[in-house]
Amino acid sequence: MTKISEQVSSHNRIFYWFFMITLMTGLYLTTKVNYILFHSIAELFSVVVAASVFIITWNSVKYIKNPYLITVGISYLFIGILDLLHTLAYKGMPIFTDYDYYANQLWIAARSMEGITLLAAFVLLYRKQEARVGIVFLCYATVTALLVSSIFYWKIFPICFVEGKGLTPFKIYSEYAICSILVVSSILLMKNRSIFAEKIYRLLLLSIVYAVISELSFTFYIDNYGISNIVGHFFKIFSFMMIYRAIISIGIEEPYALIFKELRVTNENLQKEIELRKKTEFDLEAEIITRKQFEKVQQNILQRFYLMLSSMYSGVLLMTEEGRVEFINKAFCDAFGLKEKPADLVGLESRDLLEKILPAFQDPAEAAARVRKILQHGEAVKVEEFAMQGGRTALRDFVPLNIHGKSSGRLWIYTDITEHKRAEQALRESEQFNNAVLDTVGSLVVVLDMKGCLLRFNQACEAATGYSAAEVLGRVFWEFLVPKEELEGVRLTWERLQAGDFPNAHENHWIAKDGARRLVTWTNTAIVQNGKNYIIGSGLDLTERRQVEKDRSVLAAIVDSSEDAIISKNLQGLITSWNVGAEHLLGYRAVEMIGQPINRIVPPELHAEEATIMDSLRRGLSYAHFETVRLASDGRLIPLSLTLSPIYDTSNTIIGISKIARDITEAKLASEQIKAALAEKEVMLKEIHHRVKNNLQVISSLVSLQSDNQTDERMRDELNDVRDRVRSMALIHEKLYQADDLAQLNFADYATSLLHSLWRSHGTLAAKARLNLELTPCELPVAAAVPCGLILNELAGNALKHAFPHDRGGEVTVGLQHDAVTDMICLKVHDNGVGLPDGLDWRQSRSLGLRLVQILAGQLRGTVATGTGPGTEFQITFFLKGTQA
Predict the structure, then answer these.
(1) How far is CA 823 from the centre of its chain?
(2) pLDDT surpassing 60 at residue 455
């Protein structure tokens, strides 16, 4: 049987290669007859192979466990679609006649999708995630729709070929980029070789290699019919065939080989798990031995721990989980006035011990309630302060003990802090007095030790830097307050201060918490307290003062360097300043104009206007971009744009007027030229809409003629659908040509015309279906009107053809609503016919019309929903603001 199988396989291979050689030879000979014939056969062969790859993949998903092959198989449907459009758009094909080189753009789109797919599919392999067939299909459908729209509809896809010059740089660089992606894909494929069956690995690798050779061939030609183009198409066919054979192998010929490969890998992983568990058992035995040794050491440590607790100054009480005393030290007994020895209290119940110690608390009842609450909650308590008899104060700590997650006891620690509290209070009062003195000083005051650490930081320092005293005390001031570039100078000054040499004053910057810089001038002195030396620094913040001086200088420089005329005048209308820009603009020098009345540059007929402006400015009003004219020194009237504002003093009183004048002569000329250009473009755009409408009507007529000559009823219906779709688009251009606004379309008017035309074209079908229109007038942009019109055509046409079978009569209602508040549009098509078939999921329907409705709704960024009740109802909802692009 094996020999017979080998003989059959050998015969199959001979027949396969004989068929391929004969096919390639015949394909090449067609180039001698007609290159377009060769191109069409070659591309259609690739399209058929791509479609076969998709069909096999789609029907073999349950066998193909490799997400890489599933993703690649699904992608070839959409690559085939782009290649089919590439074939139909090829130069010389009488289909897309408005531009000869759509094919080159579609080629780049298809090859880019192919290369990126072969690379991106590895992401699913690395993530070890199953391919979600529906999501993958939807993603590729969306990307394909966007690519086709960018080429045919939006026409934003870069040009790839120029007649007489050949390939554009974009086309060449894109081919090289695609080759690079394919090379990276081949490298990843070789690194992941073990994931694939050997035969499939070789086929995939050959497919990528042939694709690279094909892409390189398409970087050299300057003629769409050249030899380089022929070579590229042959290697493209080879590449597709390798993918086809790979999918055939995994989907039909060898599904079980993959299953056994996965079983083998699973068995190997199981063997590794067994070995790991054996090693774990060995490690566990070693750990048991180690733990026994550790328990002996732990006993010794516990004895030492109890000895340490006995000698502690704080009172320590250790209770068992059952509430008995396990350990108590002498300090605890002394703190609560217990007469018993610690050893005599071991084993005592917690409630009995609590009764013995309660009299020592200032408020026994409150103390008992607090202890019970702590025990009830079982949470740790840290340094909780409480009062005891005799004016004493103590701290309480409570720690629930847990060993390996299991409660094993409770630890109480009591510390008498009475003397500490008294010393702390005395120190606090002293510090409050010192701080009050320092905070009343308006200057920045710091106290530093001889290492430069901050010991005092008054409120003026906090306000200037944004740091609180708590944030900076104890830190060396130059490490965070002094800029790096001034650090060396500050350290030299500090060394002089340490040596007792105090300069009269010195300046340096401080860096505030928010990064701002403050300029401070310092005077310093030294004091000695408790045998320690300290340095006191008193600083004055000069930041605002210097900034005002700098702002004045900058403002003067800006005014002098401005090309605009900047003029100021007092309330009597006398000029007080006249910058260089005013000299250049009006021709007068500053020495000529300062002190002169402003009416010297105002034409006599505008003196009343100037007086009105002055009155408004005196009342605090301002003018922005006020257009007028002024007199130049040579008598010319110069068009100006004025910005006028009142000038206030520190008491918020108006003391003058500032005026900025800009020459708008060129802007005026440019505005007039733009208006003329816009008028010319509007005429041109109307002519374009008119011609597009005529062309679409020609196409509609041709399709209608073709439909009339068809004997196949199904084909005639398909052609009539195409005719109706073309008419819906032609009607939009007709309405735009007739409208005053070329960017907006009265969709209610358009829908009325479209539906009446549709009813007339369907003759007997429309006679039994009464049309009801509930259309709210609204304006739609062209980008929304086109897909919305196509959707209306599809849904209304479906209602005519399918809602009323067997001479059944009924109504079709079309509604259009516009919510002015949310700017939401709702288009509704409803019939009272037989309704959708039971169990039909219209979203998964293979009907081109319903799929087209979903795609077009996606372009509108809208939603499609079906209504309830008798008949069929579709609602398309979208927002106008999402359709303006």
Answers:
(1) 25
(2) yes
Q: How confident is the model at residue 525 (pLDDT cuts 50, 70, 90)?
A: confident
List beta partners, residue 752. none
Interval 489-518 mean pLDDT: 84
Q: How many residues does the chain have?
A: 885
CA distance from start to end of the chain:
67
Q: Is the dihedral of CA 834, 838, 840, 846 positive or negative?
A: negative
Distance, CA of 189 to CA of 780 (rounded, Å): 50
Check residue 597 and give its pLDDT.
92
Give yes or no for residue 700 having a pLDDT over 80: no
Q: Give the whole-angstrom CA distance, residue 482 versus residue 510.
A: 5
Question: How far is Cα 798 from Cα 17, in angstroms, rounded to an integer?
Answer: 49
For the chain, the average pLDDT equals 78
Coil, strand or helix at 550: helix
Name the one residue in this structure whose structure tokens are 């600083």: 539
Long-range contacts of 393-398 (CB under 8 A, 24+ apart): 393/417, 393/418, 393/421, 394/335, 394/418, 398/374
Task: Please give, one letter per residue, the 3-state secondary structure of 119-152.
Answer: HHHHHHHHHCCCCCHHHHHHHHHHHHHHHHHHHH
- The most confident of 68-72, 560-564, 816-820, by mean pLDDT: 816-820
pLDDT recorded at residue 142? 92
The whole-angstrom separation of Cα 445 and Cα 459 is 9
CA 144 to centroid of chain Cα atoms:
23
Helix (H) or strand (E) holding 767: helix 764-767
H or E element, residue 697: helix 665-708
Q: 645-666: per-residue pLDDT in tens?
A: 898 887 888 888 888 888 888 7
Neighbour tally for 352: CB within 10 Å: 12
User: Residue 260 has what pLDDT?
Assistant: 52
Q: Give the DSSP letter of residue 753.
A: H
- Which is it for strands 565-570 and 575-578: parallel, antiparallel or unpaired? antiparallel
Statement: residue 256 has pLDDT above 70: no
More confident residue, 387 or 431: 387
Contact 18, 209 (CB under 8 A): no
Q: Which residues pair with 780 in a beta bridge?
A: 745
pLDDT of residue 8: 43
Rounded CA Rg of the chain:
45
How far apart are the C-alpha atoms of 282 and 462, rounded to whole Å?
64
214, 215, 355 from 179: Cα distances, Å:
9, 6, 88
Residue-wise pLDDT tens digits, 230-244: 777 777 777 777 777
Is pLDDT above 60 for 206?
yes
d(Cα 326, Cα 321) in Å, to the nearest integer? 10
Q: How many Cα atoms within 13 Å fall on the side-chain side of residue 145?
A: 14
Q: State residue 306's pLDDT score.
A: 66
* Model confidence at 262: pLDDT above 60: no
Q: What is the CB neighbour count within 10 angstroms for residue 610?
A: 18
Q: CA distances (Å), 718 to each of 470, 573, 707, 708, 715, in order? A: 83, 82, 8, 12, 5
Does the pTM of the predicted model rise above 0.85?
no
Q: What DSSP assignment string belongs to 33-93?
A: H-HHHHHHHHHHHHHHHHHHHHHHHHHTTTT---HHHHHHHHHHHHHHHHHHHHHHTSTT-
Confidence at residue 739, expressed as pLDDT on a 0 to 100 scale: 54
Separation of alpha carbons 432 and 446, rounded Å: 16
670: which 2 tokens? 């440019």
Q: Which residues pair with 872 in a beta bridge?
A: 831
Q: Exposed e or buried b for every residue in 191-223, given b needs 16+ CB within 10 A?
A: eeeebbbeebbebbbbbbbbbbbbbbbbbbbee
Q: Which residues contact 425 (CB under 8 A, 6 or more apart)?
A: none
Q: How far apart are CA 755 and CA 816, in angstroms?
A: 13
Question: CA dist 571 to 578, 631, 654, Å?
Answer: 16, 21, 8
